[in-house]
Amino acid sequence: MWDFLVPVCVSDLVKTGGINQYVVQDVVSPKQLPSHLNGFKAALRSQGPLCILEHFDTCYSVLKHCHTVDLNVKEDTLELLIQVVSGLSVSLPALLLNASLSAPDRKEQLNAVKMSVFLLCKLAEIIESDSYRQSIKGKAAGEGLLQWDSERETVLQALIQLLQLDIRSLWSLSLVEEEFISCVTCCCYKLLENPTINHVKSKSTRDAIIHLLGVQVKKYNHLLGASVKVIQLLQHLEQLSSVCAQAVAVWSTEYGVKAIVGEVMREIGQKSSEELAREGSGVKAFSSFLSELATLVPDIMIPNISVLLTHLEGESPSMRVAVCEVLGEVLVKVLSGDGLDESGKADRDRFMDTLQEHLHDVHSHVRSRVLQVYTRIVNSKALPLNRYSEVMGLTVGRLMDKSVNVVKSAIQLLAAFIAHNPYSCKLSSADLKTPLEKETARLRELREKLQANAPVFESYGLENMSGHYGYTGGYASKKTSSNLISSVPMCSFFSAGPDQDVSENREDLPLTPQKEGVEGGGKDGVEDSELKKQEMLVQYLRDTESFALQVEAAIAVINSMLYWKTTSVVQEAVQFCVTVCEFSVANSLTGVRKMLPLVWSTDATIKDAVVQAYRRLYLNPQGDSTRAKAQTLVDSLSELMVDASLGTIQCLEEIVSVLPFSVVQVLWERFTGKRETSSLHRRAAVLLLGMAARAEREVVLSNLDTLCSVALAEKVTEDFLLARDSVITVCNITDHVRQAKGAPFRLPQDHQLFTCLTRAIAEGVVMEDPHWQSFMEQAVRLIYFLAESPDQICSCLLQRCSRLLLDQIAEVPAVSCLSLAQLLSLCGCVAFWQVSHLERSVSSELRRRRGETEEREEKAKGPSSKAKVSNESSVEEELGLMGASADDTEAELIRKICETELLADENLLCSFLPLLVRVCSSPGRYSHPQLTAAACLALSQFMMISPSVCEEHIRLLFTVLERSSLPIVRANAIIALGDLTVRFPNILEPWTQNLYTRLSDENPSVRQTAVTVLTQLVLKDVLKVKGHVSEVAVLLIDPQTHIANLALNFFNDCGVFNLLLHLCVARMTCPLAVSVFRQLFSYITKERQTESLVEKLCQRFRTAKTERQWCDLAVSLSLLSMCERGLKRLQECWECYSDKLTETGVYQPLLSITAKLRRGAKPQLKVLTGILVIFISHTFSLNLVANPSVSSHRDDSFVTPKPTRKSSKKPVVTFSSDEEEEEEGKSTFWVPPVCLALCFRGNDWCGGWLQSKHFRCHAL
């Protein structure tokens, strides 16, 4: 009988073969194929799978005409072939067990197997190609070929069932021919190339392909072929990295072929750096493959991991990342726990050392991924205790990394350290210092005692306690940590008093190996065991203290990152703060409070992160009942509100919006005193009620009488802070907090609330309570927000307070300066809020009434009049006059009231203005600090009323600013003048210089106030910063760090780049001007900015008038971090500064630029820099020769001398070779040939330089 040989190419079957080799005899035409397939189908039903021997030519014809036959023909053929292969899978097991099977029958079965498998694999490849082409054209894969995805899996399952049988016995000597194996494997690899093989819907197909190839690898000696093919697939199809990793893992575990892991790893390990550097080398796929494989079979990779370590020294960062991730998975899943032998411990330590080295890798991506590997190790509790301190220190150092991704990964690792540490991180280093000293002293006593008893004593160091503390092999696992804590009772130890001995806590320590050896050995054995236990305790305390110090350092650094410009870093910092707070780490609340102002961030992501963090920490109460949850929520919020500033309260209002009724009820109980609580918690409760009132007014309005009787009644003078917070709460029910439509919500003048407020203010004005001032300001504000006719209430209040002060003077001849200061503060506050009331409340009410009147008039008019009005209004809209006339009339009315009525003789406020002027203008007579400060602030508030008052007293206010010896007065004056500048900019404009002068004030608080106010004025475009940049720049080197940071924020907000030009041409008299410039230029990090700044500074040489300005510009250029692009721009602007090279102060800085550029530069850049040096040096020499009167040593106050040159023609520099003579009247100098070659090698910028009118080349 003939033999069927699996061909390499399908067309080989029609060629004449060897002896007894099957050759296709009849290739059926496409039209006849349906009838022949029907015959094949009938034969299959009658004869079984062996009918393929007779109908092979029909199926071969389908392959031959695959591009022309109908899809139905392919589908029918595929179905028939699947039935044949499945039939062989059913019939062959019995035949293979039959030992008496004849040779012809065996050959017949073998031919049927090879024919059917060959046809099925080839047809599957063809259909797969057609499906892929249709998907590219936009059609669904099943549109042309119905249900191919499901049929694909059926084909694979049929092949698996057949090839799992021991069909090797059908071949002679059980040697399966290579062509047969390749036929099946090529089909599998073809199917793997499908782009959708990674999708979830293709999981069953993917698994079937992997198992089919696994059968080939295990039974048919496809190991080497599979390893080579895996490398090829990774090299050309990056998306198959996870599939290949899964396949190799299945082959090595389920099929027991572990050698394939080593083969693939060796193939990757032998890749050189040059190969991996080439495009299309598949380095990313190799990296992903190794990382994925390590997560699946890390134990199998260990014997061959050495072949990958060579890539750690290579240039590919992706491969270094992959190897580090492999090491991490091995450390987590294999080399962890306490049961490691000596070899395992050595491997673990070596791998740990390798990872630590790459925390300082040159590539940021590698550093970031190594930190992520360590995060996984720490989260898995696989990091040895003896490495905690070292790795923690390295991680804290990575917080200063330039890469944002590295910083984020470092923050995540630190959070993992805190979440899984074996120490007591709830205690700070300060709390641990005293117990450590105490236990160290006890350890010293024990050692001295033993030395006294035994002259020869073998001390026990750390190596003797490794079995308990884990410094050579222990891990921070749950088991080890529990043993350690049981041996060192930290909770009871740290809860003991400062004088309480902890010896009673040591009785339950576990029996150490040394103790077991000497048990029963008498007193010496007991003392020896006690010494070892004490050594363990001291070492544990030392490590805990070291860990606490590192955590504190990390918290301090990460807290500063909360205000970075990088959103992702801020998010990680916020999450870290939440983590340390949840684990009750010492000083953790610092970051939580610091991030609170971020609720006002313009970045929605940051704002949401902060809001979610606070809700997670404070608004997610735990409890068994609603009442218990409400109590927990109130307790947590109260702790946050205790001693909170006004800014903190405003931030919390943005987070705490709606509170449940049960929480509101508990808050009222605390405020009213029904539950025993402190005054701080009562204030916190009333402030929280105010936050709830912002969303629902009735929370406070329905209990307003209760609030007045508790906080504003007769005992109000005992606690002005509670009264102030209560007033703030009531302010939240006013229309100024919410956008209200309709008539404004106000209470009558005789309401109990205003009676209580006026009484409290009047009684406190003659008292010496430090908190009365803040209460008074909030109370007056509330009166103007909520009362009908608030001016009448405040007029009566001023009269009442004045009368009380006069009565006090009558009793005591000397007036109290503090009482007078408080009265003046009240006058200023009333004046300020009266103006605000007119411009906001009265003005808006006039507009509202006008709108209602217009609506009523429109309704009263008929349709005809409406049409006429609409025509007139359309004309007004086109001219832009719609509503402008009425608004201007109302604004003019308010301005007239402020100008003529508020300070009229019959008005009460007018009576206080002369007193304010007298106190401010007589600092020698009225020297009381609080009185002077109050009078100055009140005078500025009176000046806000009208331009005439402001213009009349502006000189006095600036005199106070300049001459007052009190820093608080100067600071208040700056704030007041900032407000006046916004309100009356034209009046304050001539006095701008006086405001900038305060930036150099001797007092830090005044400088801080000045830079803050000026920053706001510049940002609001009220002031122009030109001409005054130098005064702000000096603050960059201020000894006070917070002032320097404010100055830096000024430049960042106003634009460092835009302000630098004004600063560089300004003559700074500060002796530290160079330090200021260096500090500013350090923030110019982009090459594009450097290039632009170089160009603009060079252009400024043209407009500079004096030699001093030339030198300042040259020094500014030298302080820049010059780059190659900056050098190019410096060369292109040669004409701007070449004629200024008569001065040493210009020449030396320019030379320093070239010196810095040549350090570590590339050879070509060094040559070009050398050319620039030659040009600068020679031009300087020529200018000195042409102008010998110019001295190289000049005074700081020099000016540009008059020109002494006879000719204005510039000297011409010519290049000459050694053989040529110099032309008469032209200066020449030698340039190295290599420089000239580079200049004329098509280098556009250098060649353009040489072709300029200044230089001429004679010989090249």
From TrEMBL:
* Stretches assigned to the Condensin complex subunit 1 C-terminal domain: 968-1117
Keywords assigned: Cell cycle, Cell division, Chromosome, Cytoplasm, DNA condensation, Mitosis, Nucleus, Phosphoprotein
User: Which GO terms of the molecular function aspect are on file?
Assistant: histone binding
Compositional bias (Basic and acidic residues): 516-526, 844-861
> Which GO CC annotations does the UniProt entry carry?
condensed chromosome, centromeric region; condensin complex; cytoplasm; nucleus
Q: Does the keyword Nucleus apply?
A: yes
What Pfam families does this protein map onto?
A: Cnd1 (PF12717), Cnd1_N (PF12922)
Name of the featured protein: Condensin complex subunit 1
Organism annotation: Esox lucius
What does the record give as the organism's lineage? Eukaryota, Metazoa, Chordata, Craniata, Vertebrata
